[in-house]
């Protein structure tokens, strides 16, 4: 893992990225309760630095509160500790920390008594990264009284909005400027490898959604290879897209897909205006599956990509000067396709990561290099995906990945969409290869893909 250190996160981490890292840490054996214990211990150390005679720890109901309860337990035998609880803890980890705290010599109250605000140090463990102004009660009143006190205030991970924090004890990485960062034992792999955490960023359709809320996807391809665009189209539906249109000269019928049957046996200039119109109306376009190498087909398909808001560029279209969509583009080459555009794929994850990062920067999009370990980059960050199985070498699995990425891209940014697609398709393959072995078909992936994306977390 040491050689992958250059691909780890640094600086200020976003709330979404931290959610991904936290969940991925579970997969590497570092549970949420373990992380909370480490965070609480680090928070207690920050309080200890102040040499207080009396400490107040103000706790909300989420995991920030759990960190606060844990810190209170670590400090209980050293100083006078008062703990305020805004309500019953909501997470299993916070409940476990509260139960352990109840066995310690601390004062616990659910009332904002004056003693809380006359302590030497006040710990703000009220609300986490999702909190926004204006605050509701009791939080608004607590922040007002805390700010008016003469105490030193230490914020747990992030200050509650409006809080004047003298110090911010951040865990793993800073979430806001001016933080002191404490290591809590999250492994590097949770940052650089894709995992279940990446699926947390896949949007869920809210109650009251209507047809189209999940996005409209256009798949352009087919001709020499008839099944490819339909595999990609169904995968986009399984990834959550509401409306998928396959524009192709290939015959086919699937009741869930709108089939725009193009004349002739390959995509050509006479289809150009129609395809451009469809691309402009779509949230994302998947272009290339089964397209073939006819120069006319490649030229028209490249124009379709450039007319799209977002696009996945796949298969035969991965050659020469890569077309780029208006907003975001995902390129999904295998090693041979990568080589003909960017140069040979180097051995070793670290050098491959740098090569893919350079390729993504040059292409101006996200490159998802498929392989035994996928390598994904947007030209800045590099991620690796280890999910998958040997039975996935069968034809059509790449079309499923392209369609899945397109379905997610219709509602997500390109980098998280590519990471989630790679991980989800790979995990689906693992699940089905355990059942079917070497007889796995690309169509088998389609029946389980939505389950991986939306029900396994």
From TrEMBL:
AMP binds at residue 398. Its cofactor is K(+); Mg(2+). CDD domains: YXKO-related. Pfam families: Carb_kinase, YjeF_N. (6S)-NADPHX binds at residues 228, 290, 334, 399. Residues 18-192 form the YjeF N-terminal domain. It comes from the Archaea. Binds 1 potassium ion per subunit. Its EC number is 4.2.1.136. Residues 194-456 form the YjeF C-terminal domain. Keywords: ATP-binding, Isomerase, Lyase, Metal-binding, Multifunctional enzyme, NAD, NADP, Nucleotide-binding, Potassium. PROSITE patterns: YJEF_C_3 (PS51383), YJEF_N (PS51385). It catalyses: (6R)-NADHX = (6S)-NADHX; (6R)-NADPHX = (6S)-NADPHX; (6S)-NADHX + ADP = AMP + phosphate + NADH + H(+); (6S)-NADPHX + ADP = AMP + phosphate + NADPH + H(+). Catalyzes the dehydration of the S-form of NAD(P)HX at the expense of ADP, which is converted to AMP. Together with NAD(P)HX epimerase, which catalyzes the epimerization of the S- and R-forms, the enzyme allows the repair of both epimers of NAD(P)HX, a damaged form of NAD(P)H that is a result of enzymatic or heat-dependent hydration. Bifunctional enzyme that catalyzes the epimerization of the S- and R-forms of NAD(P)HX and the dehydration of the S-form of NAD(P)HX at the expense of ADP, which is converted to AMP. This allows the repair of both epimers of NAD(P)HX, a damaged form of NAD(P)H that is a result of enzymatic or heat-dependent hydration. In the N-terminal section; belongs to the NnrE/AIBP family. Belongs to the NnrD/CARKD family. Homotetramer. This is ADP-dependent (S)-NAD(P)H-hydrate dehydratase. It comes from Methanocorpusculum vombati.
């Amino acid at each position: 893992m040491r050689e992958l250190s250059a691909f780890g996160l640094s600086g200020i981490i976003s709330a979404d990225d931290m959610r991904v890292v936290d969940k991925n840490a579970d997969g590497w054996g570092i549970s949420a309760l373990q992380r909370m214990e480490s965070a609480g211990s680090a928070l207690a150390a920050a309080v200890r630095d102040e040499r207080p005679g009396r400490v107040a720890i103000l706790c909300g109901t989420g995991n920030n509160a759990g960190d606060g309860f844990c810190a209170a337990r670590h400090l209980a035998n050293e100083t006078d500790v008062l703990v305020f609880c805004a309500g019953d803890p909501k997470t299993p980890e916070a409940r476990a920390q509260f139960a352990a705290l109840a066995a310690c010599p601390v004062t616990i109250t659910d009332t904002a008594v004056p003693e809380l605000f006359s302590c030497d140090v006040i710990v703000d463990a009220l609300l986490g990264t999702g909190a926004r102004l204006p605050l509701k009660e009791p939080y608004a009143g607590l922040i007002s009284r805390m700010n008016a006190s003469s105490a030193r205030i230490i914020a747990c991970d992030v200050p509650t909005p409006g809080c004047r924090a003298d110090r911010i004890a951040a865990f793993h990485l800073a979430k806001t400027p001016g933080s002191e960062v404490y290591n809590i034992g999250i492994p590097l792999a949770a940052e650089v490898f894709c995992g279940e955490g990446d699926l947390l960023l896949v949007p869920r359709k809210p109650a009251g959604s209507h047809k189209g809320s999940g996005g409209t996807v256009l798949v352009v391809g087919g001709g020499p290879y008839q099944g490819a665009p339909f595999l990609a189209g169904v995968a986009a539906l399984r990834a959550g897209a509401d409306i998928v249109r396959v524009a192709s000269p290939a015959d086919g019928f699937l009741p869930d897909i709108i089939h725009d049957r193009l004349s002739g046996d390959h995509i050509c200039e006479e289809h150009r205006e129609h395809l451009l119109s469809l691309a402009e109306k779509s949230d994302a376009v998947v272009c290339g599956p089964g397209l073939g190498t006819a120069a006319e087909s490649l030229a028209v398909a490249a124009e379709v990509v450039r007319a799209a808001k977002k696009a996945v560029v796949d298969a035969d279209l991965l050659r020469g000067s890569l077309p780029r969509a208006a907003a975001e583009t995902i390129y999904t080459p295998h090693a041979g396709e990568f080589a003909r555009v960017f140069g040979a794929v180097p051995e070793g994850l670290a050098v491959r990561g740098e090569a893919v990062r350079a390729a993504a920067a040059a292409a101006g999009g996200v490159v998802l290099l498929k392989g035994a370990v996928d390598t994904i980059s947007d030209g800045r960050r590099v991620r690796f995906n280890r999910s998958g199985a040997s039975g996935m070498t069968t034809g059509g699995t790449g079309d499923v990945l392209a369609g899945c990425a397109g379905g997610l891209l219709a509602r997500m940014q390109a980098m998280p969409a590519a990471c989630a697609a790679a991980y989800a398709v790979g995990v689906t393959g693992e699940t089905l290869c355990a059942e079917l072995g070497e007889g796995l078909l690309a169509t088998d992936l389609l029946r389980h893909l939505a389950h991986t994306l939306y029900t396994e977390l």
